[in-house]
Amino acid sequence: MERFAFKGVASNLVTYLTDVVQMSNSSAAKTVNSWCGFTSMLPLLVAPLADSFWDRYSTILTSSFVYVLGLGAVASTATIWTWSPPSNKSSPAFLFWSLCLISLGQGAYNPSLQAFGADQLDHDEELPSSKDDKSSNKKSLFFQWWYFGVCSGSLLGVILMSYIQDTLGWILGFAIPMFAMITSVAIFTCGNRIYAYKPDKSIDSKPFQNILQVIKVTASKLVNGRIRINLPDDKSDVGELELQEKPLCDQKFGSNGGFDGNPRNKTYLLENAKIVLRLLPIWAMLLMFAVIFQQPATFFTKQGMTMKRNIGRNFKIPPATLQSAITLSIILMMPLYDKVLIPITQIVTRNQKGITVMQRMGVGMFLSIIAMIIAAVVETKRLEISRKMSSLESETVELSIFWLLPQYVLLGISDIFTVVGMQEFFYNEVPVRMRTMGFALYTSVFGLGSFLSALMISVIEAFTSSGGRQSWFSDDMREDGLDKYYWLLALASTLSLLFYAIFSKFYTTTSELENGNCK
């Protein structure tokens, strides 16, 4: 329901900005990318606060209220501008702040909801004895089918709302997502009596506060020139600390939020911070994958507006509807992934999971590169046909919009590999009580990727339009250079994949480290 509401606004927002707010193509694309980036980065800021000060259930309810306010504000802009079109700077500013409310609500809502869902599976996942292959496979299955549900909502949002917005108007097109979100909150609260609520009694039950306190104490000692880290000499003592995690928490931690100055506890918390830092090289190499995923909602949609979209005499396909091909391919292919691909890879690799999470992400990155190569070839063909046409003719070229389908479908298949893999990877690689932060790390990949996409557009536009030349992102779709832009993205993504493979080779997962310690 939440994905339906969000996609109902986001999937066709670039059209709203160009047709109603009267922005240029590049400005609209940068606005959408910046907003998507802000939306995806907010969980990284909000999640530590939610982990430290609120329980997940309360966070979900509070953030959903803010979410609904934002959706209502966006719907109000469509209502106002139907009667009085935007003519001054304050109008786009109001729309921007309305979108920011949606971002703020989603920033706390999504990671908390997914972590709350994962909490229902296992009550004792903190204990080493529960970290077996069966538990790992159960979580893997949960993330795959969670994403299946997410994609089902996205599919309905893209298909239904883009059609309503293009044919019945933007007021109804933005009002329906708001009421869908209200309905989702009502349904969620119906399960109050059956939910499993995890108590936060472990060492890092307030990780954000504790890590800040460790940094403060360490900085103070550095200033005074007397820092010393005490580590246990007896290795068996370390093993006992790991195996007796819960009892030691209750005995050693006082009422001051879980920090009593014990050197062991400081070391433990610093290790948590170090685990997050360990993820940064892999996190950084996934950014180009996120940049590629900004194209369907921006330039792919603008491409489709210039192509032949008729089905029959009267019906025209809304260009944003083609984004549904991504989610539809995920919905159709995910069962095949479980039933066909995994059994084959299990035989080949002799691994119970078939392929590792990191291999899974790498395959998706490779498929996204192929998608961009196809996009570049199709755009080259579109430009060839368009430039042969007279300037007096319609901007629509005699090339079916369905030529864009292969790039959408390939991005959908790459999504099954990389995005689901990212969710599982970041969930498993962070400390247990920082799981919301783990999901925030995953969404922040797409956040920074969106900002990186907007930055690339600005830099490329400034460079290509200098000296009176035509920009690659020209409003005249006959003269743009999107084919060159797509080739550039394919090249940059290839370099990212190469470095990702190198970093993955030397990366040691948390489970491997724990198994090594147990041995």
Automatic annotation (TrEMBL):
<keyword id="KW-0813">Transport</keyword>
<keyword id="KW-0472">Membrane</keyword>
<dbReference type="InterPro" id="IPR000109">
    <property type="entry name" value="POT_fam"/>
</dbReference>
<keyword id="KW-0812">Transmembrane</keyword>
<feature type="transmembrane region" description="Helical">
    <location>
        <begin position="171"/>
        <end position="195"/>
    </location>
</feature>
<feature type="transmembrane region" description="Helical">
    <location>
        <begin position="439"/>
        <end position="464"/>
    </location>
</feature>
<dbReference type="Pfam" id="PF00854">
    <property type="entry name" value="PTR2"/>
</dbReference>
<feature type="transmembrane region" description="Helical">
    <location>
        <begin position="315"/>
        <end position="337"/>
    </location>
</feature>
<feature type="transmembrane region" description="Helical">
    <location>
        <begin position="485"/>
        <end position="503"/>
    </location>
</feature>
<dbReference type="InterPro" id="IPR036259">
    <property type="entry name" value="MFS_trans_sf"/>
</dbReference>
<comment type="similarity">
    <text>Belongs to the major facilitator superfamily. Proton-dependent oligopeptide transporter (POT/PTR) (TC 2.A.17) family.</text>
</comment>
<feature type="transmembrane region" description="Helical">
    <location>
        <begin position="399"/>
        <end position="419"/>
    </location>
</feature>
<dbReference type="GO" id="GO:0022857">
    <property type="term" value="F:transmembrane transporter activity"/>
</dbReference>
<feature type="transmembrane region" description="Helical">
    <location>
        <begin position="93"/>
        <end position="109"/>
    </location>
</feature>
<feature type="transmembrane region" description="Helical">
    <location>
        <begin position="275"/>
        <end position="294"/>
    </location>
</feature>
<protein>
    <recommendedName>
        <fullName>Major facilitator superfamily (MFS) profile domain-containing protein</fullName>
    </recommendedName>
</protein>
<keyword id="KW-1133">Transmembrane helix</keyword>
<keyword id="KW-0597">Phosphoprotein</keyword>
<feature type="transmembrane region" description="Helical">
    <location>
        <begin position="357"/>
        <end position="378"/>
    </location>
</feature>
<dbReference type="GO" id="GO:0016020">
    <property type="term" value="C:membrane"/>
</dbReference>
<feature type="transmembrane region" description="Helical">
    <location>
        <begin position="60"/>
        <end position="81"/>
    </location>
</feature>
<feature type="transmembrane region" description="Helical">
    <location>
        <begin position="145"/>
        <end position="164"/>
    </location>
</feature>
